[in-house]
Amino acid sequence: MVWTPPAEDIFRRSEQWHVRIRGLHKTFGQHQVLRGVDLDIARGKINVIIGGSGQGKSVIIKHIIGLLKPDRGHIVVDGEDIVPMSEYQLNRVRRKFGMLFQYAALFDSLTVEENILFPLIEHGLRGPGHNDGVRRRMSRAEMRQVALEQMDKLRLPHVLLRKFPSELSGGQRKRVGLARALVLRPEILLYDEPTTGLDPVATKNVDDMIRDISQREGVTSVVISHDMASTFRIGDRVSMLYEGRIVESGTPDEIRRSRHRYLRLFVETSGTVQLDPVPDSELVDGDGPGEAPR
Amino acid sequence: MWLERLARLCDRLWAPVLAFIEAVGEHVLLLGHTLLWLVRPPYRLGVLLEAMVFVGFESLFIVGLISLFVGAVFALQLISALRTFQAESFVGATVALALTRELAPVFTSIVIAARAGAGMATELGSMRITEQIDALATMAVNPIQYLVVPRVVAGVIMVPLLSMLFVASGMLGAYVVAVGIQNVDRGVFIENTRWFLDINDILQGLCKATVFGLTLTLISCYQGYHARGGAKGVGVATTRAVVGSFVTILVLDYFLTDLWLTFFPKTRGPR
Ligand SMILES: Nc1ncnc2c1ncn2[C@@H]1O[C@H](COP(=O)(O)OP(=O)(O)OP(=O)(O)O)[C@@H](O)[C@H]1O
Ligand SMILES: [Mg+2]
């Protein structure tokens, strides 16, 4: 008899896992993008998702925040399955989240300052902590102060505040998007390629900031990244998406010992991360989870 | 074999009908969501005001200008036709009836569809393809409530108002042509207009303008909201918004007129 562990109750709020995804399927037309994604997001940690272009990383992150509805599967946030929720119910859950879009998605009819303050104006009226019942309207000056602080944190010059998104560079746009995602101090931050298109110094700044926010405020971070060096530098957990499934998931050290052939190719090609050697005969293919120790 | 072919032919013939029914259904669904999110707090007056300025205030000049000439040319044509029967004193009344019942609501809606409707489809369309609509949703702001509701409400409020402006300024155009240029008697022009024109005509026009305002903003928002596929997709959405609004307005106009004349017939003046 083989002993199988009892099926975990993913619908119970867990201290260890903030978001739990089971059996996520998503097809666009004829194109099967996700084919049964199982993924756990660790609370208060930095969870990095890596994978090739067009594999569906952005699609996963959009499912986590309820922008897309899966064909099948569960997405459980703090013990609540968000899949059957209506838009109205989702809005309550979404207040836990901040999201940085791959292309920033700034509102181009608003100035940089208005963009950063947008979430505050919409939700900040009730003061910090939504449920304390105090309707404390932040003054315009207080809000401005918040915007300036965010700009400083991200090393954006203050002159940008009056500009429109179309007048910014790609990297600046991304950092403004980041400021907007951070302004309400969310519990979970989703970053879709936060450093792609930034120069090396700005990349390091953003990496440090992600680390910093995660450690200081205990925020759960989900980061999609193409940059192996920064993945292994900041990631507490790394998961690899391949052919519509998560084929490997673990700490950076565990990933270094992975025997998954494609994962090793993917990581090693970058040339910046050294993997632990594994004899060729032990490599595994396919889209099932490899046998990395976990 | 031939049965299969027949089935496929039927499918192909049915497809546009089904697509049409589906499109109507989706617009009704969007209307339902709009009404639902209209009554839910928060109420963003600033955003509504902005939309009203865009739909209404910024259309004042163009509506005023067009109506002036529509009234003028209509008067000119009528006078040349009515002269044959020595009946040019009725020009004021005829223009007034045509303007209030038909020309003002239809022309105003078409101008607003081309100006504001196209603008809405383009704006929402580019927000859609650059993920700004998704970004709104992630910030727990319902995109329908934030984007569609104010625009539809602005259309429902502003199109009837603009349509009244159209009537007033169109009458001015007709008056200038008839009394100023064509020497129709001033007193007769005004008296005949007063006698023929009735609150029933004005209400008919306002009612149409309200329905058209709702229709054209809903269609434009729908097209923008569901745009896909890059800059070209935004262009397609805009075209569809304008063409769809035009056709729908003109088709609806016939049925609304029929309904109105059946249920609210006039008791005075020409039926
Ligand atoms: N709304 C959509 N409609 C249709 N297809 C979509 C949609 N969103 C994503 N896809 C498809 O899903 C696949 C995965 O897209 P996704 O954006 O998640 O890739 P990704 O892993 O984030 O890639 P990259 O690293 O280049 O950002 C792509 O092939 C894309 O064509
Ligand atoms: Mg992506």
If you had to describe this structure to a student in words, what would you say it looks like?
The complex is a heterodimer of chains A (294) and B (271). Chain A has helices at residues 57-64, 87-94, 112-123, 140-153, 170-182, 200-217, 228-234, 252-256, 261-269, and strands spanning 17-28, 31-42, 46-51, 72-77, 80-81, 97-100, 188-192, 220-224, 237-242, 245-250. In chain A, α3 crosses α4 and α3 runs parallel beside α5 (170-182). Chain A has 294 residues and is α/β, with parallel strands linked by helices. The two termini of chain A are 23 Å apart. Chain B is mainly α. Chain B has one domain (47-263). Chain B is 85% helix and 0% strand. Chain B contains nine helices and no strands. Chain B starts with a helix and ends in an 8-residue tail after the last helix. Chain A binds chain B through residues 62, 65-67, 87-88, 91-92, 94-95, 97-99, 101, 103, 105-109, 118-119, 122-123, and chain B through 40, 42, 123, 126-127, 130-132, 134-135, 137-142. The structure holds adenosine-5'-triphosphate and magnesium ion (MG). Magnesium ion binds at residues 57-58, 102, 192 of chain A.
Describe how the helices and strands are arranged.
The complex is a heterodimer of chains A (294) and B (271).
Chain A: E1 17-28, E2 31-42, E3 46-51, H1 57-64, E4 72-77, E5 80-81, H2 87-94, E6 97-100, H3 112-123, H4 140-153, H5 170-182, E7 188-192, H6 200-217, E8 220-224, H7 228-234, E9 237-242, E10 245-250, H8 252-256, H9 261-269
Parallel strand pairs in A: 3-8, 3-9, 6-7, 7-8
Antiparallel strand pairs in A: 1-2, 1-4, 4-5, 9-10
Chain B: H1 2-39, H2 45-55, H3 60-82, H4 91-129, H5 132-138, H6 143-181, H7 186-196, H8 199-225, H9 230-263
Helix pairs in contact in B: 1-6, 2-6, 3-4, 3-6, 4-6, 4-7, 4-8, 4-9, 6-8, 8-9
